[in-house]
Amino acid sequence: YDVAFRGDGWLELDRSVMMHEEEREVLGFEISTNKSNGLIMWHGQTPNDLTPDDYIAVAVVDGYVEYQYNLGSGPAVIRVTAQRVNDGERHRIILKRQGSDGSIELNGEHTESGVSDGLQQILNARGSVYLGGLPDYAMAYGRYHDGFSGCIYTLEVQDSGAIDIGEKAIRGVNVSPCTRVRWIPSSLVFTDAEAGGFDAYVPPPPVNIIHPKPASNLAAYDMTSYSLLIILQNLIALTRDIKEQSVLFTLLCVDAVNVLNGLLS
């Protein structure tokens, strides 16, 4: 599920990973790096089509995470500058786009938004999806020049959960797993995973970045607590009503006895 790069590699995935057909698109990544620049993901046109056109990209630029997309009339360039990501720590990135409006969320704490130029609302990317870099940076129309150095622990698209990156891989160069437990699809070309700094054991990724389970469990817990509170309040009210009715019945009995005594006397 995870892949490591050292700045001189790339991994090509089948374009079916990102069809961009949903009205509201959501992508999730978990990464770590200690470099100031590097292309994390690119999805644009085929290598033979170098005319600037529709694309979507996420990269580390000057130590900050940057989200770009172009629907054909001009790009939206959205960067989170509240926190650097080139500190070697794991960072969660969520990209959202609805038509020309987009946003990037970093670690659930920092969010920036932007809008692409023109009236177009649909992203039409016909090429493969690339992680960690490109075989030819002319494909990025001069916007990016550096490969990613670090680890991509998790990739999610919409409600996919963590995607098995190895299963979707077509080919790659200078790619290795982040952990010592290896998956080695026959279509990939790997370097020595033991030679770098990103192949040490790390905890497994969360089940879901875009919709993390702990949040769902917490919501369920809060709803259960709220329901129990309502039941308790109703029981207290019922008990109070019973007490009040008992007092009223006693008073009525006393009044009835007094009336009878008056009649008999």
Automatic annotation (TrEMBL):
The keyword Ligase does not apply. It comes from Pogonomyrmex barbatus (red harvester ant). Keywords: Disulfide bond. Residues 1-178 form the Laminin G domain. CDD domains: LamG. Transmembrane segments: none annotated. This is Basement membrane proteoglycan-like. InterPro entries: ConA-like_dom_sf, Laminin_G, Neurexin-related_CASP. It comes from the Eukaryota. Disulfide bonds join C151-C178. The gene is LOC105429353. The keyword Cytoplasm does not apply. GO terms for cellular component: membrane. Signal peptide: none annotated.
